[in-house]
Amino acid sequence: MDTSRLENPGVEGIIQIHPDSQAVTLNSTVRLQCRVRILTDPQTGAGAQVYWSKNDFGIGGSREDIQEYGRSSRYSYSRYDLPYNLKDGQYDLQITNVELSDEGSYVCQVNFMKHQYLSQTALLTVHVPSEAPKLYQITKEGKGPEVEIGSATPAIVDDGAILVLKCVARHGKPGAIISWSIDGVPIQVETDPVKKINVFRAGFTGNLTNSLMPSPSFPRL
Predict the structure, then answer these.
(1) Greater model confidence, 105 or 38
(2) How far apart are CA 184 and CA 182, in angstroms?
(3) Where is the Ig-like domain positioned along the sequence (predicted)?
(4) In the structure, what pLDDT confidence band is assigned to residue 38 with cuts at 50, 70 and 90?
(5) Which of 170, 171, 167, 162 is nearest to 180 (CA)?
């Protein structure tokens, strides 16, 4: 344990490892680092006090406070913890079963000798995997109702008619990247600058459009 006495330390002398911004997947575990040098006030003998804040709101400075903040009716345990040795200045914040509500900006704050020292801001972004894509045929050449298709229910279209298919992958955050293939061969798309459409040719010619629509809510997986 590195115990020091400093008259006027700068932030670089107190916070030795700052938390980094991260992007994690829903329901995963994330650890935001904050390693603090152990210091003693030469006049009072008091040590530094360390706190975490989320979106400029304090969430606690002790393991008990952090765990209390992370409790909810969904789990029998706290999702938030300071799992390491605080006496050695290891104030890493760990979040398990990450939820969308955990997104935000996190800062580790140290109070010492009537001064406040802030770590760099760590932005936590939560990604949500898309559901498995589903394929639909829009009947009547794109004017009729949608029918889900698959290996057991193939698309049916009259000879010479236009076949309109739609692929949907819901609830992704960010939205899923969808690609098309025919008989296992990826479709090569060309952009028509005049008609402003994407055109592909695979023994026949077709148009391809992509759209991203916001979901009203994300499922709790």
Answers:
(1) 105
(2) 5
(3) 9-125, 145-184
(4) confident
(5) 167
